[in-house]
Write a structure and sequence with these properties.
Chains A, B, C, D: InterPro entries: Gfo/Idh/MocA-like_OxRdtase_N, Gfo/Idh/MocA_oxidrdct_glycsds, GFO_IDH_MocA-like_dom, NAD(P)-bd_dom_sf. Chain A is an alpha/beta fold and 369 residues long. Chain A is built from eleven helices and 17 strands. A nine-stranded mixed sheet of chain A has the order 16-15-14-13-7-12-11-8-17. Chain A has a six-stranded parallel sheet with strand order 3-2-1-4-5-6, with helices on both faces. A two-stranded antiparallel ribbon of chain A has the order 9-10. The N and C termini of chain A lie far apart (41 Å).
Chain lengths: 369, 369, 369, 369
């Protein structure tokens, strides 16, 4: 039977979810979902028509409560994540939520607890970059032992959307409005990738920086509260070590989610700005091999049988949507759900709080308890 | 009022058309098309359900004739292009046809003539690579004079799908079954790009090669009839010159549609294997600048507001679909239609026939007349 | 016993020869050559001191005739090549000459004939790019069959030293003063590489262009006589085919000597602008492997035991010098000597004369005879 | 008057110094140095002949004391650096020493003190990578304000010379024999680059790892004592922050000295494996521009007038040699001398000792005092 879908939000990620819901069955087969209702503060009817939803509403609670709705896509600003996700879980719905879960770790904890209390409902967080064919191929290569034991990780996620010092102040730059800064926008993505490749984190030591402490506003200069950039050292539970860096003020970087894994028998290198190339080196080979995405990698073939033809950002979301549908259908578990999301956000909050002090993650878990 | 769509074929390009039809309004707005009927030789009902079409049929003629159908997407093997396109035009329908138009130039001519005889119906050929944001940005840069007068073109389109000498013989390797070889599969794409950037071609001189003259078949070795690769010198009507090369036996190349334009005041360089980077050099600058696709380029923003996040192959087709809808709606002309397609195919057939002899395109046109 | 060296010219290539002579024994061992005399039209004494030659003279004939001189390095403008090389050969000296041999094919023929008449004297032409470790590795890979039978060649050599339309007219742009244009400066290098990788050329068909027909001079605009760019189709004696392009007006290109070889079992790709990377693909591998230069490649280890540390342009000349010394010492033959140089120049002159007509090289040889 | 040179050592760096001494005047003009004496434990006479030195000796002290010697090049294993440098300084000679200065910080301190006590003698350490045209251009761009105020640094220096777990144990892997591990071999180079671009370091927090704790030896497995890799967070005195990583066990990396600087108005990116490209982005530009080395950059033109022709690793040393000669000649100061070298080594020793604890450099200086 077709899955009934409610979508809340029609911005960058709202449209991306809509495209995914519309194409998931076309790409992967199975019963196409029923696009039941779209909720947004304004123009919901027009957007519902554009996105192919049966109806639009400005009452998100009504959309969540609609008995024809099985799953809720939440793509609103971070401050609204908790009330909407809570409502959806309480209404018995599956939840597909954009990251980060919430503005504060306490909220994330409460959300994870609520999800745990509804074990029959699937939660999935929008960590897009886990779904690209190149990333999935990298994860599989490591799992297969192709590069031996992972010894070291180096990762950055840099963009430049706040690099201009004249960019006006916004509520997103406050703790109350935006939560964390670069760590919340970008850093959590890098953490999601890092732990998927390297396993759990045992300890972090981090520095943060506000590169532009004051920004112009109509009321004169105002203070930026959350970090423009962060750097961290990582000890993994496996004993491996890693370096970690993220910035929203790195001029010229657009989606520089770049990482490498050094294993005992090879290395992998990737850069999301060219998300269709995975660089692989195995001990004894003459150098790194550029592996373009293609049908020999996970999930690529469903989109295109021809290698080197380029997978796109939005298509990652179709894979994510397929994983969600499979999990709802009783099959394969998918993640990161809220529990794993809490682990990711615990790490970025530890980084934000570290100020050069080593923080052991298990102690933090105990403190929280 | 919603446009009624029939789709014929569910392979690589059939699915790609389906995704485009499903998402074009989500991405660009406007009334979503009505996915009326899907035709395929087998499993048409199941595929219609998967692709979200209202019905499926194994009778393509019926789909074309369906009065609720306004436009027909034709994605079948090349030998079927002419009968289907002819039928659709005669039934008063708009036609969206994958390239090349047909196996022979005579067929292409007849199709173009028929399209001319139905001036109120739009024809559009699936030259995907004309729709990527980087390509469109390149074309706009040249049109704006950013690199001065184009003096020279260098272009290749290489893949390796037939590189393995042990790849079995197939009917696609015959004139009767496949028409041209690399020129028909790949070369016509490169011609489409070349003339969009450089203007009309005046003369070509070409060599072709069959790198693997015989291939295994159940009946023993059989002859390959169409070219594995072709090389050409180009004289453009503008006086500029170009080099042109295409191969289906270039080991390691997956979608190497690589070109550069040398202008009197700068240069552009592009490679479809990294379709999200356009390299721009203007006289006086220190080197080439890598311009990642982003919302400052045509059509990117409708898919994603964030630069560097990667446009995908299939999304080119959504842009193409939007152009088709705009043209049908009475607005902007779009191309290449059948007349322009004939010009492209005239060029590749001239290359196939040249054997080192210079062929002037206008003479060819006269001969044809 | 130490080889006595005369060097004529102290410009770009003069200094490069001097560095090579000074370092060849340091790098490769053997008896250091004796830097006997440096000849230049002006400042010969000062330059001799700077370059470490025992004496300087403004009389190149005297340098050539000096009985202590065994070998003459000729690095003067092309119009002087023939008289100097002839004099050196007639004086019984070995000759190391920068390319091209001369302004006209007739001169090149005469020089080759004279060299043939002095079989005991080594001639070597300065085709630097044949001596880089990456190129040598490529040639060895092909020879070893690593990529199977070479089926196709694609090569360009583009620079932008004349790209600016306001660049003043110079005598180098005339037939009498400069001989060929881009073909003489750049194209001959590309031919040298092409035939070393692919074997002899059977036929060429070429176009040439003068992108900037008139250039400013103190006497008003003057005509440019030799080509700014050339394009060619190549038939190799082996049956393989190739495309060939060269330009001195390609904005942004600095030393874009880029080629690829498609073999029946793999491909090689190289770009002199990153001369320390050779890209290798063998059938069945996931993509191209970037092989950085290192001690596993020919001649690198003598300069540096550490891979990835970058070989430089000037160091190519040290390898060339070592090859010359070995040949003089009675050992390994080295090339291209004057006979091979004539073959190279026959090809570029055929390209210059082709104007779209196929020219068979053996016929040309017969015409010459 | 010509500078008298003694060279101690004929390995990787000994040959590199020899090439530099031989070519420095050829490249940059000035009086060629007099290559007086070469010292090595074995074959000194033969190596002196090969390298063009007047004599060879197995008595390095005699070479240092030779009254015809003005400057001593020391290229021996690290444990010999201090006695040789001390002897040279005490004998009144200038000293050109390969990095690091010594095995222990105490030795480095003593060497710096001795150099301070001989103010008329120049000391220079072999931090090659400071001399490449691309690096010098980067430093000049930052100094000129081209990218505004440097806000952040990311740097790695990875190689794979110890990546193979089966590589036998060696004395270089002990504190007594090799001093530090990756930090001493590679990390100090990265520090030299980092402080040249970003200014002084205020605080470091680091982790180190021994990826392969035991290695085979004829006597059975033996313990590796010094670090295979290190990671650090950096606080610069300017307030900027940086991340730092180095490894000798990074499979596939050959000379991956890769760094980027994020400024308030632009960014620079560099990778020593392609040392001829500097990537520059200024706010407002469409992306990063690849600036190939060329005569518009410092010191390139003296080697080659043609851009894009590739500077080599060994040529960095010729620039270093020129700087040394200029400093000795009473002119421009050059560095890093022993005092600056001590600062660099203080940083790597602080990293080695940190174990996750923040170490303020000025406190360390006080502790030392």
């Amino acid at each position: 039977m077709a899955l009934g879908v409610a979508l809340i939000g029609t911005g960058f990620m709202g449209k991306c979810h809509a495209m995914a819901w519309r194409n998931v069955a076309t790409v992967f087969g199975g019963t196409p979902p029923r696009l039941q209702v779209l909720a947004d503060a304004a123009d919901a009817g027009a957007m519902a028509a554009q996105f192919g939803f049966q109806s639009g509403t400005d009452d998100w609670q009504a959309a969540v409560d609609d008995p024809a709705v099985d799953v809720v896509s939440i793509t609103t600003p971070n401050a609204l994540h908790r009330p909407m996700a809570d409502a959806a879980l309480r209404a018995g719905k599956h939840v597909w939520l954009e990251k980060p879960m919430s503005l504060t770790l306490a909220d994330a904890q409460a959300m994870a607890d609520l999800a745990t209390a509804h074990p029959g409902q699937v939660t999935l967080l929008g960590y897009n970059y886990l779904r690209s064919p190149a990333f999935q191929a990298a994860r599989d290569l490591i799992a297969s032992g192709a590069i031996g034991r992972p010894r070291a990780f180096r990762g950055v996620y840099d963009e430049d959307y706040s690099a201009d010092p004249d960019l006006p102040w916004s509520w997103r730059m406050t703790h109350a409005g935006g939560g964390l800064g670069a760590l919340g926008d970008l850093g959590c993505h890098l953490v999601s990738v890092m732990i998927a490749l390297m396993g759990p984190v045992a300890e972090v030591t981090a520095l943060t920086d506000i590169a532009v402490p004051q920004r112009p506003s109509p009321d004169g200069p105002r203070q930026v509260e959350n970090e423009d950039s962060a750097l961290a050292l990582i000890r993994f539970a496996s004993g491996a070590q890693g370096s970690f860096a993220t910035s929203r003020v790195a001029h010229g970087r657009k989606c520089r989610l770049q990482w490498e894994v050094h294993g005992s028998e090879g290395s992998l290198v990737f850069d999301q700005e060219h998300m269709n190339a995975l660089w692989v080196h195995r001990a004894g080979e003459a150098g790194f091999t550029r592996h373009l995405t293609g049908p020999d990698q996970p999930d690529f073939a469903a989109f295109c049988p021809a290698p080197g033809h380029n997978f796109g950002f939005n298509e990652q979301k179709v894979v994510e949507c397929r994983d969600l549908i499979r999990a709802i259908g009783g099959g394969t578990p998918c993640g990161p759900g809220f529990a794993e999301g809490l682990a990711i956000e615990t790490i970025i909050h530890a980084m934000a709080a570290s100020d050069g002090r080593a923080i052991r993650l298990e102690e933090l878990a105990h403190e929280d308890a």
